[in-house]
Amino acid sequence: MAEAAARDGYGVIALDAFGDADTRRAAQRWQPIGRPGALRLDAERLLHALTETAADTHVIGWVAGSDLECEPELLERGAALLPLIGTAPDAVRRVRDPAVFFEVLGALGLPHPETQLAAPNDPRGWLCKHARSAGGWHIRPADSAHAIEPERRPYFQREQAGTPMSALIIGNGREARLIGCHELIVHALGARPCVYRGAIGPLLLSTQRLAALDAMLQTLTRTFSLRGLASLDFIDDGRQFWLLEINPRPSASMGLHTGALMRGHVEACLAGSLPAPVWAHEHDDEHEPALRGSEIVFARTALRLSAAQAAALAACADCHDLPTAGSRFEAGDPVCSVSACGASVAAVRAELADKRRRLRHEWAVGNNLPDSTDPFPPSPSGRGLG
Question: What's the predicted TM-score (pTM) here?
Answer without folding.
Answer: 0.90
